[in-house]
Amino acid sequence: MTADAVIQKKRLTVMIAITAACFVLAGVAIFGAVSLKIDWLLPVFFLALVGGLGSQIWFILGWMRAAKREGGASS
Known about the structure:
single chain
């Protein structure tokens, strides 16, 4: 396995962990905000969404950078 593949595997694992944590946090926050009427949980819900989406964007940008390096090295 190449060094880039090892790095990408670690990035994937981190991205999945962050996305799963944000998913759970967002679910709890929206439940508390809507059902229990705890108003301060609504911003927590949106921050959890941004965090999960951000981790996925971080992974994709790293993947694109690795693909660009790989393509440039073989040309």
